[in-house]
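SEQUENCE-TO-STRUCTURE ENTRY
===========================
Question of interest: how does this chain fold, as expressed in backbone structure tokens?
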Amino acid sequence: MTDVVVLNLRDDCVARTATNFRRGMTDKRFLELEITAWLASPERKRQLTAEVYYDGQQDVLKRRRMALDDDGKPMELTHLPNNRLVNNLYSKMVDQKTNYSFGRPFSLDTERKDYAAALATVLGARFRRTMRTVGEGAWIGGKAWLYPYYEGGALAFKRFPADEVLPFWADADHTILDAAVHIYVVEEYDESEQAKAVVKVEVMHGGGVDCFIRRDDGTLEPDPDGHSGDYITAEDPDTGKEQGYNWDRIPLVCFKSSHHEIPLLSRVKCLQDAYNDILSTFANQMEEDVHNTVLVIKNAEGE
């Protein structure tokens, strides 16, 4: 396992491996290569597939009815019924598991009633809704992330899906984060007033967060609109100046479906696809009756 040492990104340092680090490679280049490899990794592809399967965009929708032509080459039979039925049992399983774990609101039990009341204002209805979406995302992507931050002087929480976070773990059990990269896409208008997708990159480390924009060639450049610096900024009551604060640890909490961090779809995709195929085939056969189907038999000998 490769150890990761996080340095000060604002000094053009992103992350440096303590071992197996190629001499002469800059920290920024290392991060660019890691992001490029992760975006095309099989793990992230499974996470993205699980997301679209939950929304009902499943492989059966690409189904075509094929046959061989006179030359033995495959061709599509467009004149035959081609049902593409999706009975999304997988999404029902995700909902059931999520409701089992987060269906009922949690309670706060303490002898100090004032403390419980103050804590309930922070962990209220909004936090419970966020936790439910985090649990749902953990079943879909194998893991999901909870990000604490301050909004208007109050503590708030945000969910990051698994396909948006590249973690750098400090241990093999994936319990301690050395650093993490949050990658997401936003729509922005260019000079010609055309909307385009812009890939934003937030690198979280012990010294704060640094914001970049990822170009089409995989390189990173500083984001002029991003907030690079300390995680939290607040006004000092004594001096009246903005004061920066950082967390003791990387402010990301990982919620896993299991120790293996495997999406639920990886265990049931073959069954879901087979069920869709059976339903679609049955519907095709019901529509291929004697009233609207003509069967032509060629090269048959005798009667």
Notes: The two ends are 72 Å apart (CA to CA). The first strand starts at residue 4 and ends at 5.
